[in-house]
């Protein structure tokens, strides 16, 4: 899941950079920074097409996703809807709004209708956070399973390697508890009446326990709650519930869909906490499942069950005055914890050692992310694609990026690696940062990359880099880079610097030379068919302090738009 979010963010980065350049001239009253979280969650929800927008997408996004995702509800209430209006207008006017989307007018109309409800939702979110902060002040130790006390230790962990989604989805399809939740939902059927005090009658409970092959009724209710978490069961009236129409298809064939279902039930791990007859004793053990998981992770992903019992018994006693009594009353408090975690595919137990599965590691990392705790988690080297490598390297310090590249290269033939990197860079012509990263890495491979560079000459976005490196390598029949090639490289540089902010962009302009040099460049660079040309020309005119440069940029922009 984490690598999927990172991949989606990397995919959106060039589009958002383009929007940031477009907004000042076309939507000066909007705040482009507010669009990022909304665009990311939309991309994750629509599963694969960042440019496909429907009216119903906006309702789910603004009223369901954003109240949970925004960092500053107050700022979102003031500016999110205007920013989205600008973003949708940008997508439409620049050809990024995919076929099949609702018309722009309908999308804007839906935003107008949702604006008041969205502001109310942001006010509710702000109130909830204020309440949570007050609760935090009253009780610093909210839960035995709180990750915050371990934040420093988590940050100091060596890099955690995550398996690819295809493997994780395969594991998710085998999770026993999800299958039981599906079976329970199918048993529920359509329009089953439930009671106010007891959801099911004694006869229904006995029938359900038998249908699922459970040993006792208590576990039924945890599976019932899991089925609701997984959206296998949903209320469809005041006193009726029904199975979701897609439930019978589990396990889903699509990897992303399968992982999404498993992730919906991730917080069901709290159902593994022991349940005692005394509510106060039960409360003293709340968070025990999470407490075990974080300790296993901190120990490198595996821990002795005996050590866990001793440490968690001590932690429980420190956490709650009733902790010692609760631990004793539970008999073996870790038995239900281990049973649920193994049933949810997160741990295995062999020779009294508890070990996180790849699925369990993914889940714990996801919960750490939710807790806003820094953790270094990346795709496993052997499963890392060229695009993964390029995306992650862009955000790493140079030494770490070099080490990541070396480890990745150790598993590949250099010539093939060069081809993979350049092919990844060619996937999105608008992503200048990925293109520059790829060119730099392939350039470090020397003559072995010549065949890959020759292939890259056929890609318009890579030709300037290929021509430059082939000339530097004195490759046979290599042609000198053209003026258009040089201009493309300059536009890529400007694209990257513009994404870093106005100061960086202005600095990149000064790197070109004097105002007269830039004016001379603008007189010809408008002919280059670069995906960000028009936005960059607008940005040059807006950012450069010399008025003559501004005028030259406007002339170049006019020529670019008119094709003259």
Biggest pleated-sheet summary: 3 strands, antiparallel
Outline type: globular
Distance between the termini: 48 Å
Number of helices: 28
- Give a count of the beta strands, DSSP E runs of length 2 or more: 8
Strand order of the largest sheet: 2-4-3
Instruction: Look at the helices and sheets and give the structural class.
Output: mainly alpha
Walk me through what this model shows.
The structure is a single chain. By secondary structure, the chain is mostly helical. The chain is built from 28 helices and 8 strands. The strands form 3 sheets. A 3-stranded antiparallel sheet has the order 2-4-3. The chain has a 3-stranded antiparallel sheet with strand order 5-7-6. Strand 6 and strand 7 form a beta hairpin. Helix 1 packs across helix 2, helix 1 crosses helix 4 and helix 20 runs antiparallel to helix 21. Keywords: Coiled coil.
What is the element layout, followed by pairings?
Blueprint: H1 2-26, H2 35-46, H3 55-69, H4 73-93, H5 104-138, H6 151-155, E1 160-162, H7 165-173, H8 176-188, E2 192-193, H9 202-212, H10 218-229, E3 233-235, E4 240-243, H11 255-264, H12 279-284, H13 288-298, E5 302-304, H14 305-319, H15 323-329, H16 334-343, E6 347-350, E7 353-356, H17 358-370, E8 377-379, H18 386-393, H19 398-409, H20 414-425, H21 432-443, H22 450-456, H23 463-472, H24 483-500, H25 502-512, H26 515-525, H27 533-543, H28 547-562
Parallel strand pairs: 1-8
Antiparallel strand pairs: 2-4, 3-4, 5-7, 6-7
């Amino acid at each position: 899941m984490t690598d999927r979010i990172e991949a989606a963010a990397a995919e959106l980065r060039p589009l958002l950079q383009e929007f940031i350049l477009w907004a000042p001239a076309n939507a000066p009253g909007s705040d482009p920074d507010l669009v990022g979280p909304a665009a990311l969650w939309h991309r994750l929800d629509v599963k694969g097409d960042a440019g496909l927008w429907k009216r119903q997408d906006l309702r789910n996004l603004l009223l369901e996703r954003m109240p949970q995702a925004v960092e500053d509800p107050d700022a979102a209430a003031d500016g999110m809807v205007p920013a989205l209006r600008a973003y949708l207008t940008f997508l439409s006017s620049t050809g990024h709004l995919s076929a099949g989307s609702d018309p722009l007018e309908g999308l804007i109309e839906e935003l107008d209708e949702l604006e008041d409800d969205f502001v109310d939702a942001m006010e509710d979110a702000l109130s909830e956070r204020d309440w949570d902060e007050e609760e935090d002040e009253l009780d610093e130790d909210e839960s035995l399973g709180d990750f915050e006390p371990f934040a420093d230790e988590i940050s100091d962990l060596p890099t955690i390697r995550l398996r690819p989604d295809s493997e994780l989805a395969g594991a998710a399809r085998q999770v026993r508890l999800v299958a039981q939740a599906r079976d329970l939902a199918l048993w529920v059927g359509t329009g089953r009446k439930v009671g106010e005090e007891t959801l099911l009658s004694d006869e229904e409970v006995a029938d359900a326990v038998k249908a699922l092959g459970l040993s006792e009724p208590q576990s039924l209710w945890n599976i019932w709650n899991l089925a609701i978490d997984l959206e296998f069961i949903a209320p469809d009236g005041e006193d009726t519930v029904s199975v979701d129409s897609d439930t019978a298809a589990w396990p889903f064939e699509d990897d992303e869909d399968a992982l999404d279902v498993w992730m919906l039930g991730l917080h069901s791990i709290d159902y593994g906490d022991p349940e005692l007859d005394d509510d106060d004793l039960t409360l003293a053990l709340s968070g025990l499942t999470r407490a075990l998981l974080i300790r296993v992770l901190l120990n490198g992903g595996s821990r002795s069950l005996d050590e866990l019992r001793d440490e968690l018994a001590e932690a429980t006693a420190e956490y709650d005055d009733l902790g010692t009594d609760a631990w004793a009353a539970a008999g073996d408090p870790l038995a239900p914890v281990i049973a649920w975690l193994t049933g949810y595919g997160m741990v295995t137990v062999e020779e009294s050692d508890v070990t996180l599965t790849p699925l369990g590691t993914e889940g714990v990392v996801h919960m750490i992310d939710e807790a806003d705790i820094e953790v270094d988690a990346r795709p496993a080297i052997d499963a890392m694609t060229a695009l993964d490598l390029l995306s992650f390297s862009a955000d790493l310090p140079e030494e770490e990026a070099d080490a990541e590249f070396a480890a990745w290269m150790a598993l590949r033939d250099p010539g093939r690696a060069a081809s993979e990197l350049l092919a990844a860079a060619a996937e999105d012509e608008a992503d200048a940062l990925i293109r520059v990263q790829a060119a730099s890495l392939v350039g470090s491979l020397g003559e072995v990359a010549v065949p890959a560079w020759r292939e890259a000459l056929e890609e318009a976005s890579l030709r300037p880099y290929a021509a430059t490196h082939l000339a530097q390598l004195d490759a046979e029949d290599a042609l000198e880079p053209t003026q258009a090639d040089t201009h493309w490289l300059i536009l890529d540089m400007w694209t990257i610097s513009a994404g870093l902010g106005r100061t960086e962009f202005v600095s990149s302009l000064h790197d070109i030379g004097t105002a007269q040099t830039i004016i001379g460049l603008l007189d010809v660079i408008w002919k280059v068919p670069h995906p960000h040309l028009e936005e960059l020309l607008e940005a040059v005119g807006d950012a450069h302090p010399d008025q003559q440069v501004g005028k030259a940029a406007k002339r170049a922009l006019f020529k670019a738009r008119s094709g003259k």
